[in-house]
Amino acid sequence: MLKQIVAVTSMGFRSVPQRLASSSVIVVGIAGVVAVIVSVFGMTRGLSQSLVAAGRPDRAIVYRSGATSDIASTLLVDAVATIKDGPGIARTSDGQAAASGEFITAVNLLRKEDGNRAGVTIRGIEPAAAAVRPEVKIIAGRLFQPGLRELIVGRGAFAEFQGLGLGDEIALRDSRWTIVGVFASGDVNESTLMADAATLLSAYQRTAVNSVTVRLASAAAFDEFKTALTTNPTLSVTVERESDYYLRESEEAGEIFGLVTTFVGGIMALGAMFAALNTMYSAVSSRARDIATLRAIGFGASGVVVSVLLEALVLALVGALLGASIAWLLFNGNMVTLGGGVSSLVFEMRVTPALLGVGVLWACTVGLIGGLFPAVRAARLPVATALRAA
């Protein structure tokens, strides 16, 4: 049985050069499917990692009860003061609470790549933010000075948008603000600009912040801090561990991308599968006489089925490797700007070996399905009919 399978399979592969054009349809189709699927999953992975990296278990974010995120929240001055007096908050070197009341707005800037306008988030932070987010490091220039209309820019936004170089000015409301530094944080905050919260609030004629982010004395202090704030009758707030907050954000983004990937990938996979079906049916027809001759001299139907399936699988595998290589070389590590309306997120695509494996598995499944029906047809092909047709 094994010798028959090897013999029939070898015959099939030897005939591939004669059907190079039709065989290439499978390879190119599968390569396109894999490249798209892997790149979209890589975008999802990069966004998720960027969001999750921003959250730490020893930090908490406090925003108005009923809001779904900090950007949709408003906290008045009295509420901010009460939050900063909560138990379990770490202290700065001068004994102040490691807490930052933050105001969020946005500005439209031109993208370097295509010149289109997109929104960039501006986060107003308080001086204690240095103790709250120690991972934020100035890598060029300097930190903004409180009271002055100065900004620092995340390296992601710096790389993607025009007019954010050191010394450049951007218009906010009725004034010009100067870029004085570039920072790195290794997370989604690199998509933003940061400024002094009090100065930013004054420019926008606001008195309320969106949220308060605090660094706790330890991760274990979260429950005490949350209980104190949520049971305080003068407050109406939601308290989340920052790591949980950004995990939820990443899961919501992952669901959206998952739907997009399934829809687009499904349509492309269906097209590739039909291409494989047509190609393999054509291959079976062109080899009808050879298959009939083998059947006539005693070769079993199983050898024919396996040979057709293996051919489809190998062609799909070649396409998968080609598509995976394209995704890895062209997309891994690329900066992606997502959004463009109110705000944008800038992050790196992450094409991991696991995602490449998913793409190859998807391709092999499409190849097997595409080769199954032609293989069954070849096995059932009447010997006499095939010989007369040839």
Q: What attributes characterize this protein structure?
A:
2 domains; 12 helices; elongated; alpha+beta; two-stranded antiparallel sheet; 390 residues
Task: Explain how this protein is built.
α2 packs antiparallel against α8 and α2 packs across α10. The protein contains twelve helices and twelve strands. It is of the alpha+beta class. The protein has two domains: 192 residues, no CATH class; 170 residues, no CATH class. The strands form two sheets. Strands 1, 2, 3, 4, 5, 6, 7, 8, 9 and 10 form a ten-stranded mixed β-sheet that branches. A two-stranded antiparallel sheet has the order 11-12. The chain is elongated, with a radius of gyration of 30 Å.
Mean pLDDT rating: 81
Number of domains: 2
Tell me the distance between the termini.
26 Å
Number of strands: 12
- Continuous helix count: 12
Main sheet record: 10 strands, mixed
Radius of gyration: 30 Å
What is the helix/strand order? HHEHEEHEEHEEEHEHEHHHEEHH
Topology:
Elements: H1 2-14, H2 20-53, E1 59-64, H3 77-84, E2 99-110, E3 117-125, H4 129-132, E4 137-141, E5 150-154, H5 155-160, E6 169-172, E7 175-184, E8 193-196, H6 197-203, E9 211-215, H7 222-230, E10 237-241, H8 242-286, H9 288-296, H10 301-331, E11 335-339, E12 344-348, H11 353-380, H12 383-389
Parallel strand pairs: 3-8, 5-7
Antiparallel strand pairs: 1-9, 1-10, 2-3, 2-9, 4-7, 5-8, 6-7, 11-12
Helix pairs in contact: 1-10, 2-8, 2-10, 2-11, 8-11, 9-12, 10-11
